């Protein structure tokens, strides 16, 4: 009888970074490259990933929780993350399926913790509760100057015939986004084994190749394989 896949047979990878750095695109490309190597993987995002978490996401990004303050928002993010971990992340990892997430716990630290001024003790407690031991195996932080990132977003909106409105976080002042960028870099320096910074100021194809090189070097089961 075949044994059930062990937790060690699956990997949990998260993407972090400021607005407009291309996380969603690179999550999709990494998922495609893993599929070419016959690696079962699922794509998800935060806040969100499950129906309950998506409802919290909508509430927050519409600005309806803004008046409550950063501390209350951190609690809401933790509630969404707890459901996300228990209903999607943990079951897939337990079944040997890799999980690739567009944002995770580091975004709470960068946005509500460092930028919003929420006490580290609250962030630590919420993180311990929500993660329940499911720390990412690798966090890829895409780094880019915010001014260049927003020019890229605006250009893509023009090409798609859309108006770049964005959610409330995207509408913050440039200085706010500069501080956010530094927060992510500080998180990477504090967690060098888990977090790796890659410049997003390159073509999507070059960035995809850099990410695949990092991921395939990191995990033995991918070594010797090349993305097609």
From TrEMBL:
The keyword Lipoprotein does not apply. Residues 15-211 form the Thymidylate kinase-like domain. InterPro entries: P-loop_NTPase (IPR027417), Thymidylate_kin-like_dom (IPR039430), Thymidylate_kin_CS (IPR018095), Thymidylate_kinase (IPR018094). The keyword ATP-binding applies. ATP binds at residues 17-24. It catalyses: dTMP + ATP = dTDP + ADP. CDD domains: TMPK. Phosphorylation of dTMP to form dTDP in both de novo and salvage pathways of dTTP synthesis. Belongs to the thymidylate kinase family. This is Thymidylate kinase. It comes from Devosia rhizoryzae. The gene is tmk.
């Amino acid at each position: 009888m075949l044994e059930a896949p062990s937790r060690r047979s699956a990997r949990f990878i998260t993407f972090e970074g400021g607005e407009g750095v291309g996380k969603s695109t690179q999550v999709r490309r990494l998922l495609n490259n893993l599929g070419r190597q016959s690696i079962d993987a699922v794509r998800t995002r935060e806040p969100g990933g499950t129906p309950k978490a998506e409802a919290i996401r909508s509430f927050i990004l519409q600005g309806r929780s803004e008046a409550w303050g950063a501390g209350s928002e951190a609690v809401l993010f933790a509630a969404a993350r707890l459901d996300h971990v228990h209903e999607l992340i943990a079951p897939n990892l337990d079944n040997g399926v890799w999980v690739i997430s567009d944002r995770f716990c580091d975004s709470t630290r960068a946005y509500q913790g460092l930028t919003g001024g929420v006490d580290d003790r609250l962030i630590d407690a919420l993180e311990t509760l929500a993660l329940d031991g499911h720390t990412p195996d690798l966090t890829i932080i895409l780094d880019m100057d915010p001014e260049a990132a927003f020019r890229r977003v605006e250009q893509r909106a023009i090409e798609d015939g859309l108006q770049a409105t964005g959610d409330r976080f995207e509408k913050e002042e440039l200085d706010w986004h500069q501080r956010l960028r530094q927060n992510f870099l500080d998180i990477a320096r504090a967690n060098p084994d888990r977090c790796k910074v890659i410049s997003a100021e390159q073509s999507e194809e070059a960035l995809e190749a850099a990410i695949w090189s990092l991921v395939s070097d990191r995990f033995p089961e991918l070594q010797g394989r090349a993305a097609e």
